[in-house]
Amino acid sequence: MAEKVNNFPPLPKFIPLKPCFYQNVADEIPIDYQSLVKRIYHVWIFYCITLVVNIIACLAWWIGGGYGVNFGLAILWLILFSPCGYVCWFRPAYKAFRSDSSFNFMAFFFIFGAQFILTVLQAIGFSGWGACGWLAAITFFSTNVAAAVFMLFPAIMFTMSAVAMLICILRVHKIYRGAGGSFQKAQDEWNSGTWRNPPSREAQYSNFSGNSLPEYPTVPNYPPGNQWP
Fold it and tell me: Which one, out of 3, 4, 137, 164, has a CA that is 20 to 30 A from the CA of 20?
């Protein structure tokens, strides 16, 4: 079998850094769950785009008479949540469906649930949090209409991200519970240490003993002469 070489993130060749992860949904994820894993990946991408739009809106907020701390925090959220979102909740979901790992399912539920709550708070938009949500945008119309219009875009996108995250959590939970998953299974994986490097589904299916084909003599035993049945 060909060795799997890390391919994510896809960095240009002139950068001396190498990808850190191997990601191939079509190759590693069962076909029944590929669309869901891709959807979770797209939610991560959309959330990163939302954080970029939020920076632009926070800059308009600052120029229109707001506080510069919101712009600084918006940059911090992009730098922090973009890579952490991929590592902390998309990768657990990817590994959970790849190897049917209860521990990774639980990690996804806890971390992605916290991400969902944070995204809801960002959609609300409390002042001083570095997020242009509904509250910040609506209240700023009385100060600067043009800046407030810019602030509506991340408010809408944060709301869409929160809705998409909620749908993903419910779908993954339905699949996990329907397959007999439980917190006890996650504890067993933790105690046994299999959560560190769980075998893939292909490895689980191919890990059998015995001969896959019946043994035959090396030389065929043909009937003598022309005595064929």
Answer: 164
Per-residue pLDDT, 31: 92
Q: How far apart are CA 14 and CA 23, in angstroms?
A: 21
Per DSSP, what are the bridge partners of residue 21?
A: 8
Cα dist from 104 to 80, 90, 157, whole Å: 21, 10, 28
Half-sphere exposure of 208 (CA within 13 A, CB side): 8
The Cα 119–Cα 141 span in angstroms is 23
Q: Residue 49 pLDDT > 70, yes or no?
A: yes
51 and 74 Cβ atoms separated by less than 8 Å:
yes
| Residue 184: band (very low, low, confident or very high) from pLDDT cuts 50, 70, 90 | low
- Which candidate, 106, 77, 89, places its Cα nearest to that of 185? 106
- The pTM (predicted TM-score) of the whole model is 0.80
Q: What is the DSSP annotation of 27-82?
A: HHS-TTTHHHHHHHHHHHHHHHHHHHHHHHHHHHHHHTT--HHHHHHHHHHHHHHH
What are the extents of the domains in the chain? 32-179
The phi, psi pair for 110, rounded to 5°, reads -70, -50
25 within 8 A of 38, measured Cβ to Cβ: yes
CA atoms within 13 A on the CB side of 26: 0
Mean pLDDT, to the nearest integer, of 185-211?
51
| Residue type present at position 118 | L
Q: Quickly count: other Cβ atoms within 10 Å of residue 204's Cβ.
A: 12
